[in-house]
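Worked Example 4.2. Read the sequence first, then its structure tokens.
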Amino acid sequence: TFCATGQMGFDRHLSAGEIVAQVLFFARQLHVASWSAPGLPGSKAIDHITNIVLMGMGEPLHNYDNVLQALRILNSNEGFNLGARHMTISTVGVVPAIRKLSQEPLQVNLAISLHAPTDELRGQTMPINRKYPLEELFAACKDYIAETGRQVTFEYVLLSGVNDTPEHAQQLAELLVPLKQFAHVNCIPVNATAASYRTPGPDAIRAFRNVLFDNGVTNSVRAERGDDIAAACGQLRTRFEEKRVSVVSP
């Protein structure tokens, strides 16, 4: 897999309280000192939590009950009072849970970690694809859109020479065009990890995006933060665990 975090394996699920506690911790930190995004033009200092994304370490939909309970607390007027549409659940594509989520009254956002436009290619980096191939995943996404009327974001990590060519972009567009305006692609240039994958250059990213645009598929590029200290998407836990293990080992 291209994600160093995913190589760590499963430890345990977080409780609803632990999930809420993370949000409260950072809310208090922002209350003490606001945060700004260096290098992001026009960005203002942030002094409160504006959005929550459950993504990265672990599969939120494998911890369905605790995740939904935490989001209900955070959404509640008696809890954190954050709007449901400011919350996003990201999943590798657990089809039964996506269908279950479509029936929830809580109007959270859904993001799918897609990363490849064919079963053959996706199966190389996403083991879940062997259980829930693209046909099943997209059937669930179509039903989710029909039930909720909400857009689905498709996360797509760009791996140089692996899934970032204009041909791959065309295959991706053909998957997403049937979803019409309800599909958005978040292009994510891969961060450096111990794996051998390389980050594509600006021209390759631009060419990939242009193919999507030409097919009417909206898309954006994620602005990375923390990669200079190996704390960006997919980097942090592996580096921390390696350091921790080296300290406690004789």
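Now turn to a second chain, presented in exactly the same format:
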Amino acid sequence: MLSYLARRCLYMIPTLFGISVVAFAIIQLPPGDFLTTLAARLENQGDRMDEAQMSALRERYGLGEPVYEQYGKWVSAIVLHGDFGESFEYGKSVSSLVMDRLPLTVVLAVSTLLATWLLAFPVGLYSAVRQYSVGDYVATTVGFLGLAIPNFMIALVLMYLGHSVFGMSVGGLYSPEYEDAAWNLGKFLDLLSHLWVPVLVLGAAGTAGLVRVLRANLLDELRKPYVVAARARGMPERRLVLKYPLRVALNPFVSNVGYVLPALVSGEVIVSQVLSLPTTGPLLLGALRSQDMYLASSIILIVSLLTVIGTLLSDVLLAWLDPRVRLAQG
């Protein structure tokens, strides 16, 4: 198992290197660069940037250098100094910008993931062992609705109901008086009072999908001969379901971690925009729109790292749950 983990960690290096090359190159594909985007924005506002200013900024940011030189400087600074560069848009280091938003993003991601699992597990289990019951039909209907309705649509509906019916704002993670306040118990409780809305919105589709996956896999296991034989020998139903079929049915459930975690940490860009969430999603969207290459590339690289770590974590959990996976990994 340790040799397997060591190999997987070594594979992360070329994987992340390839992702960094592709991300940096794709951001460079649109015509122009950050300065042309900035000049167009200023012109729309009735202002202009002369050629001398353009040349000075191009020299300062190194935008006149070939792409491979820009990439080499960026990667070498990350590897040697942990420096992700400076954001053109904000005039601050990329690390500080990301770290300002990453803690809340992680809190939101972990809360959504835990809520998704805690709800999907019992509902999927009940729906499988009580197939064709009223509860199963209700869970199936709600699940299909959760998969069919886009997350941002749920966010818009909640915002409308909160404003029109309850007279409250459901956007953001803080009340206005706590936006710039130092951390204290009041701000923490205010965060918890606002956290349920994005957790509900972000977790709707994931919960519905996991319920369907667990139900389908558990039903498939419950029909297998070893379950029928164990039931015929008088094994209690609860022990029969929980000890054997459920562990096998959890495999796809656990493997989903590798893809859910980075999707949540990326901030679910559209939902974050709708709910005005201070996560990394809107930051990435703004960087892509302004062609802020160091900021955009760094966020993509961080999300890719989380994807690789999430995939490794899901594989380790699968090996722990299923001895056949451990033997295959050898």
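Notes for the reader: The chain has two domains: 15-81, 102-329. The chain has 16 helices and no strands.
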